[in-house]
Specification:
This protein has helices spanning 18-31, 77-83, 111-114, 121-133, 137-148, 153-171, 194-205, 219-229, 242-254, 265-269, 272-281, 308-312, 329-346, 356-360, 429-448, 472-484, 506-510, 525-534, 552-559; strands spanning 5-14, 35-41, 48-58, 69-74, 87-96, 106-109, 190-193, 209-212, 235-238, 259-263, 285-291, 322-324, 349-355, 362-365, 454-457, 463-468, 489-494, 496-498, 514-519, 540-543. By secondary structure, the chain is α/β, with parallel strands linked by helices. It folds into four domains: 5-171, 3-Layer(aba) Sandwich (Pyruvate-ferredoxin Oxidoreductase, domain 3), CATH 3.40.920.10; 191-372, Thiamin diphosphate (ThDP)-binding fold, Pyr/PP domains (Rossmann fold), CATH 3.40.50; 386-448, no CATH class; 454-559, Rossmann fold (3-Layer(aba) Sandwich). An eight-stranded mixed β-sheet has the order 6-5-4-1-3-2-14-7, sandwiched between helices. A seven-stranded mixed β-sheet has the order 9-8-10-11-13-12-18, with helices on both faces. Helix 1 packs across helix 5, helix 7 (194-205) runs parallel beside helix 13 (329-346) and helix 9 packs parallel to helix 11.
């Protein structure tokens, strides 16, 4: 087992408290100064089934999930049976004395003795894990006081006694692994997931309205806006269906509110007519599409990157758009903030394309620096020349003055038909051509603000791993492994997948002997998009579409075939 990092899998049925144990442990690890990355695998049911809370932790940064398990925490027998083949060479299982380790090295814990009441068993498990990993129990004690302080000192002390007993018991047992290396105390960090970061990015950008229909894995974006947005004057509306969600958001945008709509592939499919409406109205809106495997209901709680084409080509007719694909939690925050600026500035729909892996990925990150954020564009709040105001006035850069109805004397017209400069319906063919050209003139501005792809690894590589979105972390770790073996491997990662600026990446791609596209879909959609837009053809693809996120082991195995 590596002394630098460990992979811990906490497994059990829904309702057994595995998320509670996992989150408490992660908070303790982050407070102790360790790096943490969590991926969650859960079934589409409230109770039962088999779920896991997977934690990678260590003194050095961890960028993606792992396959081999160092410590398996089994809350039921099924967890041992399902994961025993995934154990690393020196891996072991932590389980109750009533369960069977099935031949694995085991630390059998008498949970009934350590926690006489079942409600305290999660705290006992936390104490055992802190002891095994070498994490000072003071961090766990802080968490218990924060979690149960409102219930009274007696409840806090009961939980603390269970924690103390569990830590003491574990320290008396034979060590089955090395503890984590000591790390210096760090500045405070936040333990958040991708959807929380997206919500925070929207709040930092000044979002004022969110309408949504619940759909995994996007729902928690709206839930976080409900939790944190009320004090900032954010209105969040759960509507009757996805069609209403986007149309209501466009109405709020017309009234002047920066708006956001979170959904997933199946829900977004119902929104495509309204996407086209946003295009012709030139109405700002940010749409978060958190991908999961399809077709249809597919695997509602798993991950995939198969909705790029859906988002890129959604909506009938032609109109400009931008698509961001966050690769990290920091991207989730900053690119969502940028999405609001782009949609407000260029009056076109903008998408944040994430996936279940990144939406639910939990990490410790430094607090976001709000002082470094650029201001977000907004509507024209003047009332000059109200009588001559034209909402869709022809301009060289395609940007027309956007005013707010009721804010002054300007008459602000909008409709779903082709229209004249002042917003009235028209079927004049000349105006139609000119108006379509005006809308597409905005593409030059959007292109000027494209986020360039990022490079990692070898400066002059023989092989480039091409990726986008959440795949970046696993690709980076794969490149690090191969470079340590003497190969020359780089990663080219795209945090924005539309529009594309070929001069930002084509020379670098052309310099390598082999370019391998790493994507979470069957068809290699981004590789096909590159070929369509630039003529560049990748040499190979590494594709995954079983509902699980990429790991370095998976990529390495495919590269060796």
């Amino acid at each position: 087992m590596s002394k630098q990092s460990k992979h811990i899998i906490i497994g059990g049925a829904a309702g057994q408290g595995l998320v509670t144990v996992g989150q408490l442990l992660c908070k303790a690890l982050v407070r102790a100064g360790y790096e943490v990355l969590v991926t969650q695998h859960y079934m589409s049911r409230v109770r039962g089934g088999h779920n896991t809370f997977n934690i990678r932790t260590g003194a050095q940064p961890v960028t993606g999930p792992a396959d081999a398990c160092d410590i398996l925490v089994a809350l039921n027998q099924e967890t041992v049976t399902l994961h025993k083949e995934e154990m690393a060479g020196k891996g072991f299982v932590i389980l109750d004395t009533a369960l069977n380790a099935e031949g694995l090295p085991a630390l059998k814990v008498p949970f009934d003795k350590l926690a006489p009441k079942a409600i305290f068993q999660n705290v006992a498990a936390l104490g055992v894990l802190c002891s095994v990993l070498g994490v000072d129990k003071e961090y766990a004690e802080e968490l218990l006081r924060e979690s149960f302080g409102k219930k009274g000192e007696d409840v806090v002390q009961q939980n603390r006694q269970v924690l103390d007993d569990a830590c003491a018991w574990a320290q008396e047992q034979q060590a089955l692994c090395d503890v984590l290396p000591a790390v210096p105390r760090r500045e405070p960090r936040m333990l958040i997931n991708g959807n929380e970061a997206i919500a925070f990015g929207a709040l930092a950008a000044g979002v004022k309205f969110c309408s949504f229909y619940p759909m995994t894995p996007a729902t928690t974006v709206a839930q976080n806006l409900i939790l944190h947005g009320r004090k900032l004057g954010v209105i969040v509306e759960q509507v009757e269906d996805e069609i209403a969600a986007l149309n209501m958001a466009l109405g709020a945008s017309y009234a002047g509110a920066p708006t956001l709509v979170p959904t997933s592939g199946g829900g977004f499919a119902l929104m495509t007519e309204a996407v086209s409406l946003a295009g012709v109205m030139e109405q700002p809106v940010v749409i978060v599409v958190a991908q999961r495997p399809g077709p249809a209901t597919g695997l509602p709680t798993r991950t995939e990157q198969a909705d790029l084409n859906l988002v890129l080509y959604s909506g009938h007719g032609e109109f400009p758009r931008a698509i961001f694909a966050p690769c990290t939690l920091e991207d989730c925050f900053h690119l969502t903030h940028k999405a609001f600026d782009i949609t407000e500035k260029y009056q076109s729909p903008v998408f944040v394309l994430t996936d279940q892996d990144l939406s639910d990925r939990l990490m410790g990150v430094p607090p976001f620096d709000l002082s470094s954020l650029p201001p977000v564009a907004g509507p024209d709040l003047t009332d000059d020349n109200a009588a001559g105001y034209k909402r869709y006035a022809f301009t060289e850069n395609g940007l027309s003055p956007r005013r707010i109805p009721g804010y002054g004397r300007s008459l602000v017209l909008a409709d779903c038909h082709e229209h004249t400069e002042d917003g009235h319906i028209t079927e004049d063919m000349g105006i139609r051509t000119a108006m379509n050209d005006k809308r597409f003139a905005k593409e030059l501005g959007i292109l000027s603000e494209v986020v360039p792809p990022r490079r990692f690894g070898a400066e002059q590589p023989d092989r480039i791993l091409l990726c986008w979105g959440s795949t970046e972390g696993a690709a980076r770790e794969t490149a690090d492994i191969l470079n340590a073996q003497g190969q020359k491997v780089a990663v080219l990662s795209f945090p924005q997948v539309w529009p594309l600026k070929p001069d930002q990446f084509l020379p670098f791609l052309a310099s390598a002997k082999e370019v391998v596209a790493v994507e979470g879909n069957k068809l290699g959609q981004f590789a096909r998009l590159l070929r369509q837009e630039t003529g560049f053809v990748v040499h190979r693809t590494v594709l995954r579409y079983d509902g699980r996120p990429f790991t370095p082991d998976f990529i390495l195995a495919k590269l060796s075939e």
